[in-house]
Design a protein that fits this description.
The protein contains 32 helices and 34 strands. By secondary structure, the chain is of the alpha/beta class. The chain has three domains: 88-373, Aconitase, domain 3 (2-Layer Sandwich), CATH 3.30.499; 450-631, 2-Layer Sandwich (Aconitase, domain 3), CATH 3.30.499; 677-705 and 747-918, Aconitase, domain 4 (Alpha-Beta Barrel), CATH 3.20.19.10. It has a seven-stranded mixed β-barrel. Strand 5, helix 6 (144-169) and strand 6 (173-176) form a beta-alpha-beta unit. The radius of gyration is 27 Å and the shape is globular. Catalyzes the isomerization of citrate to isocitrate via cis-aconitate. Belongs to the aconitase/IPM isomerase family. This is Aconitate hydratase.
């Protein structure tokens, strides 16, 4: 590091507790020519330090550093490209397995190119946390946790064997075993350090902790002043192989917070309000940084809750600066004393410590919120930004129902074959909406009606990292039980905390006992319901829903509620705070206005209302203060990489390269590097491509990428059956991400995706041309591949929103798609497409769409000019209709940077890295 240029003479030494640390001093750099940088947003200071420290005259130049300093004048609108090097990489197992599969395949390919496979190793620290594989098969019983763990290991043994091999085969790579917690909460509570250190040439260098993660909710750690965001697995692999992340200097939107939250509201209500506001502000691709006196009235866990939802409000990150609460949190969670001292000293030395009353940073633009105006809220029924005030929730559900049912008028009585004796059955105030028909549930005393809550899940990193909302949930359960209230018998309840620390403080306070009494027993440590691992509903409930075409409801404390994500039987999904999850489990129906109608009756027959069981802020704070302690964190994280007896019993085989098993239906050697030569082939134009799909706005990576359960009668299910896998053992797409054969068959196969080439039909189907035959998208793609016909996809606005799923891009390229043409892209998916060698195009002229062009899906598309393509270049596509008529449309290539151009020319980012390693 000392050999690198230091154009602004800012390499200094900081003494902390008698130990010297080398650092790159922003205040010194300001004196030496970078004028005004002390007024940069804190997140921009982190980027500036990154460039100063990594200046090498090649990937980072003096001009690059000056471009960040110039931000004060142009406020981020210049769109200048920089090379950013995060300190580390975080992965979860769904995205981590395919990343390690790719590393293993790269070792094989390096061998084939005559180079040393040992060269393929992470060059920056990588932590993989196994948290996405546990499913809620068992619930509402004391042994639910142990049974779910047993099933998890049974289902995932092949994957876990592979990860155990990776743990021993690769350097700089650690695995946090199953049953520990959610990667973002483990990151917040243990892995993150706020200031990172590295020994270089006998010196210790200190710098801001930064990372990229293969999960879009990596941003949660922004609450601890760690700059990080989600990238596709493809980008993450390049970062861990030493490639800088190419990015444009961002705009930074300042979000000012004033006042404090009113009594009765939670951090979840706040984050749903923030998400709604920022979505309207259109912050996609921008940094958001929070400032203002209101920060002093939020806990660090509240900040982490807001930061977590950055993907939902569309921003790259939601950053909070270092302040006294950061230091207090590091202390409370058991970080090392010398690290805490370093964080405080470093932040002060760099001008990165927030102090109330000092001048605000300069921002591109700002918006503000008075915390006292926040009201209890939900978000749904299918997007996290669609906030609904709790007082309006039942009314808004009635309105949403008509749309979900495909236009049934809201006052019209649903068609019914319901048994009349189930009409208006059950406790007063529950499901007694006029016209509500209760349908028979086989073998049960109760019926099931439209709008019934069938899943109530306390789950996901967003809220389970926050003791205040979990203690609130426990207190609601305690007070409800004391008054004799019960959860409705048709509700599947679950509690999946983000770390073992949560269990410890819930048990210590006695609240876990109260949650157990209401059916919220521990089911596992992992994302569960939020990522579609809600497990099956009881068979009679599932049958009643499907036979009667009912819109059933889930209420979860998660961050994602897209269509088809939570459970295939559930069509309306609401995000809510953990205490509201408990309340809706008691109410049992979305038609109940829980703010004005009774949840049920007490032992004496008196009505019990939500206000009667809702805890005060003081009650919550007292329990948190008494039960959440530093020694809990120290104990629970003391042996975090060791794992339980299940993990330790797994056999590890294989050496430098992996011993692939052709019979495995979980892990297969992917075909990306087949026939790869030392030099890339020249890029060719797209000639006579067929259209695989025409999609409308807001197609998410959940729609594109295989997620959730695998249908028996789809291409992926047929593949598994042909490989002697019983449907009961299908597991989820997420668990099978290490097998490209399963994943490419599940691409565009979501049960709720709507390909407008087949209007009125849901699911992954298309029309093959010129035959005109309707068939699964995978089957059509294979037919085209057989005939050597390239493919394109057309879409609307915000294509690829949602989780940073690399398989949305990998599956796309494996189906033979050469280009995706959309009105706009979400940041991560656009980058992933380029990383897999697929060109993302946007319509160059405002107002143009595939609808305005009158496309039906039977056209042929030719795009010239790719042989000479440059970043953001405008090209023309010629679209030929079935009748032979032609129209020309202007497109802009969203290959944004020169690095991305290199990836595209090489056929993808992995090919580019591999060729460089082999050379």
């Amino acid at each position: 590091m000392s050999k690198h240029p230091d154009s602004f003479n800012c390499r200094k030494t900081l003494d902390v507790g008698g130990k010297p640390y080398v650092y790159f001093d922003l205040k010194e750099a300001e004196k030496n020519g970078l004028s005004g940088v002390s007024r940069l947003p804190f997140s921009m200071k982190v980027l500036l330090e990154n460039l100063l420290r990594n200046e090498d005259g090649r990937t980072v130049t003096k001009d690059d550093i000056q471009a960040v300093a110039k931000w004060i004048d142009d406020k981020g609108s210049a769109g200048y490209e920089i090379a950013y090097r995060p300190a580390r990489v975080l992965m979860q197992d769904f995205t981590g397995v395919p990343a390690v599969v790719d590393l293993a395949a790269m070792r094989d390919a390096t061998n084939n190119l005559g180079a040393d496979p040992k060269k393929v190793n992470p060059l920056v620290p990588v932590d993989l946390v196994i948290d996405h594989s546990v499913m809620v098969d068992y619930f509402a019983s004391p042994d639910a946790f142990s049974k779910n763990v047993d099933v998890e290991y049974e289902r995932n043994r092949e994957r876990y064997q592979f990860l155990r091999w990776g743990q021993s085969a690769f350097e700089n790579f650690r695995v946090v075993p199953p049953g520990t917690g959610i990667c973002h909460q483990v990151n917040l509570e243990y892995l993150a350090q706020t200031v990172w250190t590295r020994d270089v040439d006998g010196e210790t260098v200190a710098y801001p902790d930064t990372l990229v993660g293969t999960d879009s909710h990596t941003t949660m750690v922004n609450g601890l002043s760690v700059l990080g965001w989600g990238v596709g697995g493809i980008e993450a692999e390049a970062a861990m192989l030493g490639q800088p992340i190419s990015m444009l200097i961002p705009e930074v939107i300042g979000f000012r917070l004033d006042g404090k939250l009113p009594e009765g509201t939670t951090a979840t209500d706040l984050v749903l309000t923030v998400t709604e506001m920022l979505r309207k502000k259109k912050v996609v691709g921008k940094f958001v940084e929070f400032y203002g006196p209101g920060l002093s009235n939020l806990t660090l866990e509240d900040q982490a809750t807001i930061a977590n939802m950055a993907p939902e409000y569309g921003a790259t990150c939601g950053f909070f600066p270092i302040d006294k609460d950061t230091i207090a949190y590091l202390e409370a969670t058991g970080r090392a004393k010398d690290r805490i001292a370093l964080v405080e000293a470093y932040a002060h030395a760099q001008g990165m410590f927030r102090v109330d009353g000092t001048e605000d940073p300069v921002f591109t633009d700002t918006l503000s919120l008075d915390l006292s105006t926040v009201v209890p809220s939900l978000a749904g029924p299918k997007r996290p930004q669609d906030r609904v005030a709790l007082t309006e929730a039942s009314k808004k559900f009635v309105e949403a129902l008509a749309e979900i049912k495909g236009g049934r008028k809201k006052n019209e009585e649903p068609e019914s074959t319901g048994d009349s004796r189930f009409m208006d059955e059950g406790a007063t105030g529950v499901n007694d909406t006029p016209g509500q028909v209760r349908h028979k549930v086989e073998g049960a005393e109760h019926g099931l009606a439209e709008g019934d809550v069938v899943i109530a899940a306390i789950t996901s990193c967003t809220n389970t990292s926050n003791p205040n909302v979990l203690v609130a949930a426990g207190l609601v359960a305690r007070k409800a039980f004391e008054k004799g209230l019960k959860v409705k018998p048709w509700v599947k309840t679950s509690l999946a905390p983000g770390s073992q620390v949560v269990t410890e403080y819930l048990e210590k306070s006695g609240l876990q006992t109260d949650l157990d009494k209401m059916g919220f027993n521990l089911v596992g440590y992992g994302c569960t319901t939020c990522i579609g691992n809600s497990g099956p509903l009881p068979e009679p409930i599932s049958e009643a829903i499907n036979q009667n075409d009912l819109v059933a409801v889930s209420v979860l404390s998660g961050n994602r509620n897209f269509e088809g994500r939570v459970n295939p039987d559930v069509r309306a999904n609401y995000l809510a705070s953990p205490p509201l999850v408990v309340a809706y489990a008691i109410a049992g129906s979305m038609f109940t206005d829980i703010t004005s109608e009774p949840l049920g009756q007490d032992k004496d027959g008196n009505d019990v209302f939500l206000k009667d069981i809702w805890p005060t802020t003081q009650e919550i704070a007292e329990i948190v203060r008494e039960t959440v302690t530093r020694d809990m964190f120290e104990t629970r994280y003391a042996d975090v990489f060791k794992g339980d007896e299940h993990w330790q019993k797994i056999d590890v085989s294989g050496g430098l390269t992996y011993d692939w098993d052709d019979r495995s239906t979980y892990v297969q050697n992917p075909p990306y590097f087949e026939g790869m030569a030392p030099e890339p082939k020249p890029v060719t134009n797209i000639e006579g491509a067929r259209i695989l799909g025409l999609f409308a706005d807001s197609i998410t990576t959940d729609h594109i990428s295989p997620a959730g359960s695998i249908k028996k009668d789809g291409p992926a299910g047929e593949y598994l059956v042909n490989h002697q896998v019983r449907p009961v053992d299908f597991n989820s797409y997420g668990a099978r991400r290490g097998n490209h054969q399963v994943m490419m068959r599940g691409t565009f196969a979501n049960i709720r995706i709507k390909n407008q080439m087949v209007p009125g039909v849901e699911g992954g189907v298309t029309v093959h041309h010129p035959s005109g035959e309707q068939m699964p998208i995978y089957d059509a793609a294979m037919k085209y591949k057989q005939d050597d016909v390239p493919l394109v996809v057309f879409a609307g606005k915000e294509y690829g929103t949602g989780s940073s799923r690399d398989w949305a891009a990998k599956g796309t390229v494996l189906l033979g798609v050469k280009a995706v043409i959309a009105e706009s892209f979400e940041r991560i998916h656009r980058s992933n497409l380029v990383g897999m060698g697929v060109v993302p195009f946007v319509f160059a002229e405002e107002g143009t769409s595939w609808q305005s062009l009158g496309l039906k899906g039977d056209e042929k598309v030719t795009i010239d000019g790719l042989t000479e393509i440059q970043p953001r270049q405008e090209l023309e596509a010629v679209i030929e209709s079935a009748d032979g008529s032609k129209q020309t449309v202007k497109l802009k290539a969203r290959i944004d940077t020169l690095d991305e151009l290199e990836y595209y020319k090489n056929g993808g980012i992995l090919h580019y890295v591999l060729r460089r390693l082999a050379a």
